[in-house]
UniProtKB/TrEMBL annotation:
It catalyses: D-threo-isocitrate = glyoxylate + succinate. The lineage of its organism: Bacteria, Pseudomonadati, Pseudomonadota, Gammaproteobacteria, Alteromonadales. Pfam families: ICL. SUPFAM superfamilies: Phosphoenolpyruvate/pyruvate domain. GO terms for molecular function: isocitrate lyase activity. This is Isocitrate lyase.
Amino acid sequence: MSQYQSDLDAIKQLKSKFGTSWSNINPEYAARMKAQNRFKTGLDIAKYTAAIMRKDMEAYDKDSSQYTQSLGCWHGFIGQQKMLAVKKHHGTTDKRYLYLSGWMVAALRSEFGPLPDQSMHEKTSVPALIEELYTFLRQADAKELGELFKALDNAREAGKDTSEIQAQIDNYQTHVVPIIADIDAGFGNEEATYLLAKKMIEAGACCIQIENQVSDAKQCGHQDGKVTVPHEDFLAKINAVRYAFLELGVDDGVIVARTDSLGAGLTQKIPVSNSEGDLAAQYNAFLETTEIASADDLTEGDMVLKQDGKLVKPVRLPNGLYKFKDNTGFDRVVLDCVTSLQYGADLLWIETEKPHVQQIGDMVSAIREQMPNAKLVYNNSPSFNWTLNFRQQVFDAWKEEGKDLSDYNRDELMAEKYDSSELAQLADEKVRTFQADAAREAGIFHHLITLPTYHTAALSTDNLAKGYFGDEAMLAYVKGVQRKEIREGLACVKHQAMAGSNLGDDHKEYFSGEQALKAAGKDNTMNQFDVAV
Protein backbone atom coordinates (compact mmCIF):
# COMPACT_ATOMS: atom_id res chain seq x y z
CA MET A 1 0.00 0.00 0.00
CA SER A 2 1.34 3.46 -0.89
CA GLN A 3 1.89 6.13 1.77
CA TYR A 4 -0.81 8.21 0.09
CA GLN A 5 -3.38 5.42 0.32
CA SER A 6 -2.34 4.66 3.89
CA ASP A 7 -2.84 8.29 4.88
CA LEU A 8 -6.19 8.39 3.10
CA ASP A 9 -7.44 5.32 4.99
CA ALA A 10 -6.20 6.69 8.32
CA ILE A 11 -7.94 10.04 7.83
CA LYS A 12 -11.17 8.28 6.84
CA GLN A 13 -11.03 6.41 10.15
CA LEU A 14 -10.39 9.65 12.02
CA LYS A 15 -13.33 11.30 10.30
CA SER A 16 -15.55 8.39 11.31
CA LYS A 17 -14.29 8.62 14.89
CA PHE A 18 -15.09 12.34 15.24
CA GLY A 19 -18.48 12.04 13.58
CA THR A 20 -20.58 14.94 12.36
CA SER A 21 -18.18 17.63 13.64
CA TRP A 22 -15.83 16.57 10.83
CA SER A 23 -18.53 16.42 8.18
CA ASN A 24 -16.88 19.19 6.14
CA ILE A 25 -13.50 17.45 6.08
CA ASN A 26 -12.68 15.61 2.86
CA PRO A 27 -10.20 12.77 3.65
CA GLU A 28 -8.76 12.88 0.15
CA TYR A 29 -7.96 16.58 0.45
CA ALA A 30 -6.25 15.98 3.80
CA ALA A 31 -4.25 13.06 2.36
CA ARG A 32 -3.18 15.28 -0.51
CA MET A 33 -1.97 17.99 1.83
CA LYS A 34 0.03 15.40 3.76
CA ALA A 35 1.61 14.15 0.55
CA GLN A 36 2.48 17.72 -0.41
CA ASN A 37 4.17 18.27 2.94
CA ARG A 38 6.07 15.02 3.35
CA PHE A 39 8.81 16.54 5.51
CA LYS A 40 7.40 18.15 8.64
CA THR A 41 10.70 19.39 10.10
CA GLY A 42 14.28 20.04 9.11
CA LEU A 43 15.33 17.03 11.16
CA ASP A 44 13.05 14.84 9.03
CA ILE A 45 14.96 16.15 6.01
CA ALA A 46 18.37 15.66 7.62
CA LYS A 47 17.60 12.02 8.50
CA TYR A 48 16.15 11.27 5.05
CA THR A 49 19.02 12.87 3.14
CA ALA A 50 21.77 11.42 5.37
CA ALA A 51 20.57 7.95 4.42
CA ILE A 52 20.68 8.91 0.73
CA MET A 53 24.21 10.24 1.04
CA ARG A 54 25.45 7.13 2.87
CA LYS A 55 23.90 4.93 0.18
CA ASP A 56 25.60 7.01 -2.52
CA MET A 57 28.95 6.73 -0.75
CA GLU A 58 28.64 2.95 -0.70
CA ALA A 59 27.71 2.91 -4.38
CA TYR A 60 30.78 5.00 -5.22
CA ASP A 61 33.05 2.65 -3.27
CA LYS A 62 31.88 -0.17 -5.54
CA ASP A 63 31.94 1.82 -8.78
CA SER A 64 33.73 5.16 -9.14
CA SER A 65 31.51 6.14 -12.06
CA GLN A 66 28.73 6.58 -9.50
CA TYR A 67 30.02 9.94 -8.29
CA THR A 68 27.70 12.73 -7.17
CA GLN A 69 27.42 16.41 -8.09
CA SER A 70 26.05 19.71 -6.85
CA LEU A 71 25.89 23.41 -7.59
CA GLY A 72 26.12 26.15 -4.97
CA CYS A 73 22.86 28.08 -4.54
CA TRP A 74 22.55 31.40 -2.72
CA HIS A 75 18.74 31.61 -2.58
CA GLY A 76 15.89 29.16 -2.15
CA PHE A 77 14.44 30.01 -5.55
CA ILE A 78 17.77 29.26 -7.26
CA GLY A 79 17.98 25.88 -5.51
CA GLN A 80 14.38 25.13 -6.46
CA GLN A 81 14.86 26.00 -10.12
CA LYS A 82 18.04 23.93 -10.20
CA MET A 83 16.29 20.81 -8.93
CA LEU A 84 13.26 21.38 -11.18
CA ALA A 85 15.68 21.54 -14.11
CA VAL A 86 17.47 18.38 -12.97
CA LYS A 87 14.19 16.43 -12.85
CA LYS A 88 12.99 17.88 -16.15
CA HIS A 89 16.16 17.19 -18.12
CA HIS A 90 17.47 14.04 -16.41
CA GLY A 91 14.31 12.43 -15.08
CA THR A 92 15.64 11.90 -11.57
CA THR A 93 17.31 13.75 -8.71
CA ASP A 94 19.51 10.75 -7.89
CA LYS A 95 23.12 11.68 -7.07
CA ARG A 96 22.40 15.40 -7.43
CA TYR A 97 22.81 17.48 -4.28
CA LEU A 98 22.79 21.11 -3.18
CA TYR A 99 25.86 22.95 -1.96
CA LEU A 100 25.69 25.81 0.50
CA SER A 101 28.70 28.03 -0.04
CA GLY A 102 30.06 30.15 2.80
CA TRP A 103 31.53 32.39 0.12
CA MET A 104 28.07 33.13 -1.30
CA VAL A 105 26.50 33.60 2.13
CA ALA A 106 29.15 36.23 2.84
CA ALA A 107 28.88 37.88 -0.56
CA LEU A 108 25.08 37.83 -0.94
CA ARG A 109 23.23 37.08 2.31
CA SER A 110 24.81 39.23 5.01
CA GLU A 111 23.05 42.22 6.54
CA PHE A 112 26.39 44.02 6.35
CA GLY A 113 26.18 43.88 2.57
CA PRO A 114 28.73 42.13 0.34
CA LEU A 115 31.59 40.70 2.37
CA PRO A 116 34.74 38.73 1.54
CA ASP A 117 34.90 35.06 2.48
CA GLN A 118 36.43 35.65 5.91
CA SER A 119 33.67 34.49 8.31
CA MET A 120 32.60 38.06 8.99
CA HIS A 121 28.95 37.46 8.12
CA GLU A 122 26.30 36.53 10.66
CA LYS A 123 26.59 32.83 11.37
CA THR A 124 22.80 32.64 11.71
CA SER A 125 22.65 33.34 7.96
CA VAL A 126 23.91 29.81 7.31
CA PRO A 127 21.08 27.80 8.94
CA ALA A 128 18.62 30.41 7.65
CA LEU A 129 19.68 29.71 4.07
CA ILE A 130 19.48 25.93 4.62
CA GLU A 131 15.91 26.33 5.87
CA GLU A 132 15.08 28.62 2.95
CA LEU A 133 16.46 26.18 0.38
CA TYR A 134 14.40 23.32 1.75
CA THR A 135 11.28 25.50 2.00
CA PHE A 136 11.53 26.18 -1.74
CA LEU A 137 12.23 22.52 -2.56
CA ARG A 138 9.23 21.40 -0.54
CA GLN A 139 7.12 24.00 -2.36
CA ALA A 140 8.27 22.51 -5.67
CA ASP A 141 6.99 19.14 -4.46
CA ALA A 142 3.67 20.65 -3.43
CA LYS A 143 3.28 22.39 -6.80
CA GLU A 144 4.02 19.30 -8.89
CA LEU A 145 1.85 17.04 -6.76
CA GLY A 146 -0.93 19.62 -6.95
CA GLU A 147 -0.77 19.39 -10.73
CA LEU A 148 -0.96 15.59 -10.53
CA PHE A 149 -3.98 15.79 -8.22
CA LYS A 150 -5.65 18.17 -10.67
CA ALA A 151 -4.93 15.73 -13.50
CA LEU A 152 -6.39 12.91 -11.37
CA ASP A 153 -9.58 14.89 -10.79
CA ASN A 154 -9.90 15.72 -14.49
CA ALA A 155 -9.39 12.10 -15.50
CA ARG A 156 -12.02 10.93 -13.02
CA GLU A 157 -14.46 13.57 -14.26
CA ALA A 158 -13.95 12.42 -17.84
CA GLY A 159 -14.36 8.77 -16.86
CA LYS A 160 -10.81 7.90 -17.93
CA ASP A 161 -8.40 5.35 -16.46
CA THR A 162 -6.53 6.95 -13.54
CA SER A 163 -4.07 4.16 -12.74
CA GLU A 164 -1.08 5.82 -14.43
CA ILE A 165 -1.64 9.15 -12.68
CA GLN A 166 -2.16 7.41 -9.34
CA ALA A 167 1.11 5.52 -9.86
CA GLN A 168 2.92 8.82 -10.44
CA ILE A 169 1.50 10.13 -7.17
CA ASP A 170 2.35 6.96 -5.25
CA ASN A 171 5.92 6.86 -6.61
CA TYR A 172 6.59 10.59 -6.64
CA GLN A 173 10.28 11.53 -6.29
CA THR A 174 10.85 14.54 -4.08
CA HIS A 175 13.02 17.53 -4.99
CA VAL A 176 14.48 17.35 -1.48
CA VAL A 177 18.09 16.19 -1.83
CA PRO A 178 21.16 16.18 0.42
CA ILE A 179 22.86 19.48 1.10
CA ILE A 180 26.57 19.83 1.84
CA ALA A 181 26.69 22.88 4.08
CA ASP A 182 29.75 25.02 4.72
CA ILE A 183 30.34 25.90 8.37
CA ASP A 184 33.65 27.63 7.49
CA ALA A 185 36.10 27.13 10.36
CA GLY A 186 33.32 26.81 12.92
CA PHE A 187 32.74 30.50 13.74
CA GLY A 188 34.58 30.34 17.07
CA ASN A 189 35.70 27.67 19.50
CA GLU A 190 34.44 24.10 19.60
CA GLU A 191 31.35 25.06 21.63
CA ALA A 192 30.44 27.71 19.07
CA THR A 193 30.92 25.11 16.33
CA TYR A 194 28.62 22.67 18.13
CA LEU A 195 25.87 25.28 18.62
CA LEU A 196 25.95 26.38 14.98
CA ALA A 197 26.09 22.77 13.75
CA LYS A 198 22.91 22.05 15.72
CA LYS A 199 21.10 24.93 14.07
CA MET A 200 22.27 23.77 10.63
CA ILE A 201 21.13 20.19 11.26
CA GLU A 202 17.78 21.34 12.66
CA ALA A 203 17.34 23.33 9.43
CA GLY A 204 17.91 20.15 7.39
CA ALA A 205 21.65 19.73 6.82
CA CYS A 206 22.74 16.09 6.70
CA CYS A 207 26.34 16.96 5.80
CA ILE A 208 28.57 19.64 7.29
CA GLN A 209 31.90 20.72 5.84
CA ILE A 210 34.47 22.25 8.19
CA GLU A 211 37.95 23.54 7.41
CA ASN A 212 41.21 23.58 9.35
CA GLN A 213 41.84 27.30 9.21
CA VAL A 214 41.96 29.58 12.25
CA SER A 215 38.39 30.76 12.77
CA ASP A 216 39.15 34.44 13.39
CA ALA A 217 41.71 34.58 10.56
CA LYS A 218 39.72 32.58 8.01
CA GLN A 219 40.39 33.33 4.34
CA CYS A 220 38.81 32.12 1.12
CA GLY A 221 40.50 28.88 0.08
CA HIS A 222 41.72 30.53 -3.13
CA GLN A 223 43.29 33.59 -1.53
CA ASP A 224 46.57 34.18 0.23
CA GLY A 225 47.17 34.55 3.96
CA LYS A 226 45.64 31.28 5.14
CA VAL A 227 46.51 30.11 8.65
CA THR A 228 45.88 26.54 9.84
CA VAL A 229 45.29 25.17 13.31
CA PRO A 230 46.95 22.18 14.99
CA HIS A 231 45.23 18.83 14.50
CA GLU A 232 44.03 18.68 18.09
CA ASP A 233 42.04 21.91 17.66
CA PHE A 234 40.52 20.74 14.38
CA LEU A 235 39.59 17.31 15.74
CA ALA A 236 37.80 18.94 18.67
CA LYS A 237 35.54 20.71 16.18
CA ILE A 238 34.94 17.50 14.24
CA ASN A 239 33.91 15.95 17.56
CA ALA A 240 31.60 18.91 18.21
CA VAL A 241 29.81 18.39 14.88
CA ARG A 242 29.47 14.64 15.51
CA TYR A 243 27.99 15.23 18.94
CA ALA A 244 25.50 17.67 17.40
CA PHE A 245 24.40 15.02 14.88
CA LEU A 246 24.07 12.39 17.59
CA GLU A 247 22.18 14.65 19.99
CA LEU A 248 19.60 15.40 17.30
CA GLY A 249 19.22 11.77 16.24
CA VAL A 250 20.91 12.06 12.85
CA ASP A 251 23.17 9.13 13.63
CA ASP A 252 24.50 8.78 10.09
CA GLY A 253 25.19 12.48 9.52
CA VAL A 254 28.19 13.14 7.29
CA ILE A 255 31.24 15.27 8.15
CA VAL A 256 33.55 16.64 5.46
CA ALA A 257 36.99 17.62 6.76
CA ARG A 258 38.58 20.26 4.57
CA THR A 259 42.31 20.97 4.58
CA ASP A 260 43.75 24.23 3.29
CA SER A 261 47.30 23.16 4.03
CA LEU A 262 48.35 22.98 0.39
CA GLY A 263 48.12 26.75 0.14
CA ALA A 264 48.54 27.71 3.80
CA GLY A 265 52.07 28.45 4.95
CA LEU A 266 51.33 29.73 8.43
CA THR A 267 50.11 28.59 11.83
CA GLN A 268 48.91 30.66 14.74
CA LYS A 269 49.67 28.20 17.49
CA ILE A 270 52.36 25.66 18.31
CA PRO A 271 50.76 22.65 19.98
CA VAL A 272 52.21 20.93 23.05
CA SER A 273 53.88 17.61 22.37
CA ASN A 274 53.59 15.05 25.16
CA SER A 275 55.53 12.23 23.57
CA GLU A 276 57.96 11.75 20.72
CA GLY A 277 56.20 11.44 17.39
CA ASP A 278 52.72 12.35 18.62
CA LEU A 279 50.38 14.53 16.53
CA ALA A 280 51.72 17.75 17.97
CA ALA A 281 55.30 16.69 17.26
CA GLN A 282 54.38 15.78 13.68
CA TYR A 283 52.74 19.17 13.18
CA ASN A 284 55.69 21.01 14.69
CA ALA A 285 58.14 19.09 12.51
CA PHE A 286 56.84 21.09 9.54
CA LEU A 287 57.77 24.42 11.14
CA GLU A 288 60.63 26.41 9.70
CA THR A 289 63.24 26.66 12.46
CA THR A 290 66.80 27.74 13.16
CA GLU A 291 69.11 25.78 15.42
CA ILE A 292 70.02 27.34 18.77
CA ALA A 293 73.46 26.82 20.28
CA SER A 294 73.02 29.01 23.35
CA ALA A 295 70.83 31.67 24.91
CA ASP A 296 72.86 34.24 23.02
CA ASP A 297 71.10 33.09 19.83
CA LEU A 298 67.75 34.17 21.26
CA THR A 299 66.04 37.53 21.46
CA GLU A 300 63.49 38.69 24.01
CA GLY A 301 60.31 36.58 23.87
CA ASP A 302 61.66 33.89 21.56
CA MET A 303 60.30 30.35 21.85
CA VAL A 304 62.52 27.29 21.83
CA LEU A 305 61.56 23.72 20.88
CA LYS A 306 63.42 20.47 21.30
CA GLN A 307 63.38 18.51 18.01
CA ASP A 308 65.43 15.41 17.24
CA GLY A 309 67.66 16.08 20.23
CA LYS A 310 68.39 19.68 19.21
CA LEU A 311 67.14 23.05 20.37
CA VAL A 312 65.50 25.04 17.60
CA LYS A 313 63.72 28.38 17.32
CA PRO A 314 60.62 28.47 15.09
CA VAL A 315 60.53 31.36 12.64
CA ARG A 316 57.97 33.87 13.87
CA LEU A 317 56.65 36.72 11.74
CA PRO A 318 56.02 40.28 13.04
CA ASN A 319 52.29 39.44 13.39
CA GLY A 320 53.13 36.57 15.76
CA LEU A 321 52.35 33.80 13.27
CA TYR A 322 54.74 30.92 12.68
CA LYS A 323 55.95 29.83 9.27
CA PHE A 324 55.97 26.33 7.83
CA LYS A 325 58.87 25.07 5.75
CA ASP A 326 58.53 25.58 2.04
CA ASN A 327 57.34 22.62 -0.07
CA THR A 328 55.69 20.83 2.87
CA GLY A 329 52.11 21.39 1.74
CA PHE A 330 51.70 17.95 0.17
CA ASP A 331 52.86 16.13 3.30
CA ARG A 332 50.79 18.34 5.58
CA VAL A 333 47.70 17.65 3.47
CA VAL A 334 48.26 13.90 3.74
CA LEU A 335 48.69 14.07 7.52
CA ASP A 336 45.62 16.32 7.86
CA CYS A 337 43.48 13.94 5.83
CA VAL A 338 44.64 10.71 7.45
CA THR A 339 44.18 12.21 10.91
CA SER A 340 40.72 13.57 10.12
CA LEU A 341 39.51 10.19 8.87
CA GLN A 342 41.04 8.39 11.83
CA TYR A 343 39.20 10.69 14.23
CA GLY A 344 35.67 11.02 12.94
CA ALA A 345 35.43 12.60 9.49
CA ASP A 346 33.68 10.74 6.69
CA LEU A 347 34.87 12.61 3.61
CA LEU A 348 37.80 14.85 2.73
CA TRP A 349 38.11 18.15 0.90
CA ILE A 350 41.51 19.19 -0.38
CA GLU A 351 41.57 22.80 -1.53
CA THR A 352 43.94 23.04 -4.50
CA GLU A 353 45.22 25.92 -6.60
CA LYS A 354 44.26 24.35 -9.93
CA PRO A 355 42.09 21.55 -11.33
CA HIS A 356 44.66 18.87 -12.09
CA VAL A 357 43.70 15.20 -11.90
CA GLN A 358 47.23 13.88 -11.33
CA GLN A 359 48.00 16.40 -8.58
CA ILE A 360 44.84 15.45 -6.70
CA GLY A 361 45.34 11.75 -7.42
CA ASP A 362 48.89 11.77 -6.06
CA MET A 363 47.68 13.15 -2.74
CA VAL A 364 44.76 10.72 -2.55
CA SER A 365 47.08 7.79 -3.33
CA ALA A 366 49.32 8.80 -0.43
CA ILE A 367 46.31 9.10 1.88
CA ARG A 368 44.96 5.74 0.79
CA GLU A 369 48.17 4.01 1.78
CA GLN A 370 46.90 4.48 5.34
CA MET A 371 43.15 4.98 4.76
CA PRO A 372 42.15 2.81 1.77
CA ASN A 373 38.55 4.03 1.73
CA ALA A 374 39.41 7.74 1.57
CA LYS A 375 37.30 9.77 -0.85
CA LEU A 376 36.91 13.43 -1.61
CA VAL A 377 34.48 16.24 -2.01
CA TYR A 378 36.14 18.52 -4.57
CA ASN A 379 35.59 22.16 -5.41
CA ASN A 380 35.37 22.66 -9.20
CA SER A 381 35.99 26.28 -8.37
CA PRO A 382 35.14 29.35 -10.47
CA SER A 383 38.33 30.77 -8.96
CA PHE A 384 40.22 28.60 -11.45
CA ASN A 385 40.64 29.83 -15.00
CA TRP A 386 39.53 26.49 -16.42
CA THR A 387 40.15 27.42 -20.04
CA LEU A 388 43.72 28.60 -19.45
CA ASN A 389 44.57 25.80 -17.01
CA PHE A 390 43.54 23.01 -19.34
CA ARG A 391 45.02 24.59 -22.43
CA GLN A 392 48.32 24.89 -20.58
CA GLN A 393 48.06 21.28 -19.41
CA VAL A 394 47.64 20.15 -23.02
CA PHE A 395 50.47 22.43 -24.12
CA ASP A 396 52.80 20.97 -21.48
CA ALA A 397 51.84 17.39 -22.38
CA TRP A 398 52.48 18.06 -26.05
CA LYS A 399 55.83 19.65 -25.21
CA GLU A 400 56.88 16.48 -23.35
CA GLU A 401 55.82 14.44 -26.38
CA GLY A 402 57.99 16.63 -28.63
CA LYS A 403 55.04 17.93 -30.63
CA ASP A 404 55.48 21.09 -32.73
CA LEU A 405 54.14 24.03 -30.69
CA SER A 406 55.26 26.85 -32.97
CA ASP A 407 51.63 27.92 -33.54
CA TYR A 408 51.03 28.45 -29.82
CA ASN A 409 52.21 30.89 -27.13
CA ARG A 410 51.73 29.29 -23.71
CA ASP A 411 51.22 32.62 -21.95
CA GLU A 412 48.51 33.70 -24.41
CA LEU A 413 46.46 30.51 -24.66
CA MET A 414 43.37 32.26 -23.29
CA ALA A 415 43.19 34.32 -26.49
CA GLU A 416 40.07 33.89 -28.63
CA LYS A 417 42.21 33.16 -31.69
CA TYR A 418 42.98 29.72 -30.22
CA ASP A 419 39.31 28.76 -29.62
CA SER A 420 39.00 26.64 -32.76
CA SER A 421 42.50 25.15 -32.54
CA GLU A 422 43.24 21.47 -32.01
CA LEU A 423 44.81 22.29 -28.66
CA ALA A 424 41.73 24.19 -27.44
CA GLN A 425 39.36 21.45 -28.56
CA LEU A 426 41.37 18.79 -26.73
CA ALA A 427 41.50 21.03 -23.64
CA ASP A 428 37.72 21.45 -23.73
CA GLU A 429 37.28 17.70 -23.94
CA LYS A 430 39.48 17.31 -20.86
CA VAL A 431 37.34 19.87 -19.05
CA ARG A 432 34.22 17.93 -20.07
CA THR A 433 35.60 14.63 -18.72
CA PHE A 434 37.35 16.14 -15.69
CA GLN A 435 34.70 15.01 -13.20
CA ALA A 436 34.54 11.44 -14.49
CA ASP A 437 38.35 11.26 -14.79
CA ALA A 438 38.90 12.63 -11.28
CA ALA A 439 36.24 10.35 -9.80
CA ARG A 440 38.03 7.37 -11.35
CA GLU A 441 41.67 8.40 -10.86
CA ALA A 442 41.64 10.77 -7.87
CA GLY A 443 39.03 9.40 -5.47
CA ILE A 444 36.51 12.20 -5.90
CA PHE A 445 33.08 11.08 -4.70
CA HIS A 446 31.40 14.47 -4.97
CA HIS A 447 32.01 17.27 -7.46
CA LEU A 448 30.62 20.67 -6.59
CA ILE A 449 30.91 24.21 -7.91
CA THR A 450 30.88 26.64 -5.01
CA LEU A 451 29.45 29.77 -6.60
CA PRO A 452 28.23 29.11 -10.14
CA THR A 453 24.85 30.77 -9.65
CA TYR A 454 26.60 33.97 -8.51
CA HIS A 455 28.14 34.10 -11.97
CA THR A 456 25.05 33.01 -13.90
CA ALA A 457 22.98 35.71 -12.20
CA ALA A 458 25.59 38.32 -13.13
CA LEU A 459 25.92 37.12 -16.74
CA SER A 460 22.19 36.86 -17.47
CA THR A 461 21.54 40.25 -15.88
CA ASP A 462 24.34 41.81 -17.91
CA ASN A 463 22.91 40.40 -21.14
CA LEU A 464 19.40 41.62 -20.33
CA ALA A 465 20.57 45.10 -19.27
CA LYS A 466 22.69 45.47 -22.40
CA GLY A 467 19.74 44.90 -24.69
CA TYR A 468 16.86 46.34 -22.66
CA PHE A 469 18.54 49.68 -22.10
CA GLY A 470 19.82 49.67 -25.69
CA ASP A 471 18.24 49.40 -29.12
CA GLU A 472 16.52 46.05 -28.45
CA ALA A 473 14.47 47.50 -25.58
CA MET A 474 11.59 45.13 -24.69
CA LEU A 475 12.71 42.65 -27.35
CA ALA A 476 15.75 41.90 -25.20
CA TYR A 477 13.46 40.44 -22.52
CA VAL A 478 10.99 38.82 -24.89
CA LYS A 479 13.57 37.17 -27.15
CA GLY A 480 16.30 36.56 -24.61
CA VAL A 481 14.16 35.43 -21.67
CA GLN A 482 10.42 34.87 -22.07
CA ARG A 483 10.43 33.18 -25.47
CA LYS A 484 13.22 30.85 -24.29
CA GLU A 485 11.28 30.02 -21.12
CA ILE A 486 8.23 29.09 -23.22
CA ARG A 487 10.16 27.07 -25.80
CA GLU A 488 12.32 25.30 -23.21
CA GLY A 489 9.40 24.48 -20.94
CA LEU A 490 10.45 26.35 -17.80
CA ALA A 491 7.76 26.13 -15.16
CA CYS A 492 8.54 29.63 -13.89
CA VAL A 493 7.25 31.23 -17.10
CA LYS A 494 3.97 30.94 -15.19
CA HIS A 495 5.45 32.88 -12.33
CA GLN A 496 2.15 33.25 -10.44
CA ALA A 497 1.77 29.47 -10.24
CA MET A 498 5.46 29.07 -9.38
CA ALA A 499 4.98 31.46 -6.47
CA GLY A 500 2.06 29.38 -5.16
CA SER A 501 -1.17 30.93 -6.49
CA ASN A 502 -2.54 27.61 -7.76
CA LEU A 503 -1.66 25.93 -4.48
CA GLY A 504 -3.56 28.65 -2.69
CA ASP A 505 -6.55 28.14 -4.96
CA ASP A 506 -6.59 24.42 -4.15
CA HIS A 507 -6.51 25.14 -0.43
CA LYS A 508 -9.28 27.75 -0.69
CA GLU A 509 -11.42 25.16 -2.44
CA TYR A 510 -10.63 22.58 0.27
CA PHE A 511 -11.52 25.05 3.03
CA SER A 512 -14.42 27.00 1.47
CA GLY A 513 -15.85 24.80 -1.24
CA GLU A 514 -17.78 26.64 -3.93
CA GLN A 515 -17.44 29.93 -2.02
CA ALA A 516 -13.72 30.03 -2.72
CA LEU A 517 -12.47 33.16 -4.50
CA LYS A 518 -9.80 31.76 -6.78
CA ALA A 519 -7.06 33.49 -8.78
CA ALA A 520 -6.74 31.03 -11.66
CA GLY A 521 -9.90 31.97 -13.55
CA LYS A 522 -10.30 32.97 -17.18
CA ASP A 523 -8.94 36.49 -16.60
CA ASN A 524 -5.63 35.26 -15.23
CA THR A 525 -3.03 36.38 -17.77
CA MET A 526 -0.98 33.26 -17.06
CA ASN A 527 -3.45 31.48 -19.34
CA GLN A 528 -1.67 33.20 -22.24
CA PHE A 529 1.15 30.72 -21.84
CA ASP A 530 -1.08 27.69 -22.50
CA VAL A 531 -0.09 27.67 -26.15
CA ALA A 532 1.48 25.21 -28.58
CA VAL A 533 5.20 25.73 -29.11
